[in-house]
Specification:
Layout: E1 3-9, H1 21-24, H2 29-40, E2 45-51, H3 55-64, E3 71-75, H4 84-93, E4 97-101, E5 123-126, H5 131-142
Parallel strand pairs: 1-2, 1-3, 3-4, 4-5
Helix pairs in contact: 2-5, 3-4
The structure holds 1,3,4-trihydroxy-5-OXO-cyclohexanecarboxylic acid.
Residues 12, 75, 77-78, 80, 101-103, 105, 112 line the site of 1,3,4-trihydroxy-5-OXO-cyclohexanecarboxylic acid.
Length: 143
């Protein structure tokens, strides 16, 4: 049976492609989803790929991940730096979490250096652009 991985994307990641391309690159979120699907298949992983601008919807999806997914790959966008609600949901759901950021958040503004998600994450991948999602899938396959 193939393992199922949930890939969650937070606010403004639906704007990739046109959003600050000098920071986030020119690939759209649909491009990244396609890359993830290509990469996941030979690893024997199925993926459920979603995006929401709403903190509550992300919390609902994380809660529902319990017993459904082998891992969550999460790019929580700006909620990374603000959301105790997402942190609490991650801790409660009992599913291993791999945190991903396209940009290297530690090279950027001070307010991006703090991540609530990291407290619940098995590991963090940042600064590798879209490839970070593929590295996270490799990590998920090994979990
Ligand atoms: C981001 C980094 C966050 O600081 C920012 O708010 C985002 C994207 C990234 O993928 O680099 O929306 O998570």
């Amino acid at each position: 049976m193939s393992k199922s991985i949930q890939i969650l994307n937070g606010p403004n990641l639906n704007m990739l492609g046109t959003r600050e391309p000098e920071i986030y690159g020119s690939q759209t979120l649909a491009d990244i989803e396609a890359l993830c699907r290509q990469h996941a298949a030979p690893l024997g992983l199925e993926i459920d790929f979603r995006q929401s601008n709403s903190e509550g919807e992300l919390v609902d999806w994380i809660q529902a991940a319990h017993q459904q997914f082998a891992a969550i790959i999460l790019n929580a966008g700006a909620y990374t730096h603000t959301s105790i609600a997402i942190l609490d949901a991650l801790k409660a759901c009992g599913v291993p979490v791999i945190e991903v950021h396209l940009s290297n958040i530690f090279q950027r503004e001070g307010y991006r250096h703090q991540s609530y998600v990291s407290e619940a994450a098995k590991g963090v991948i940042c600064g590798f652009g879209a490839q970070g999602y593929l590295l996270a899938l490799d990590a998920a396959a090994e979990l």
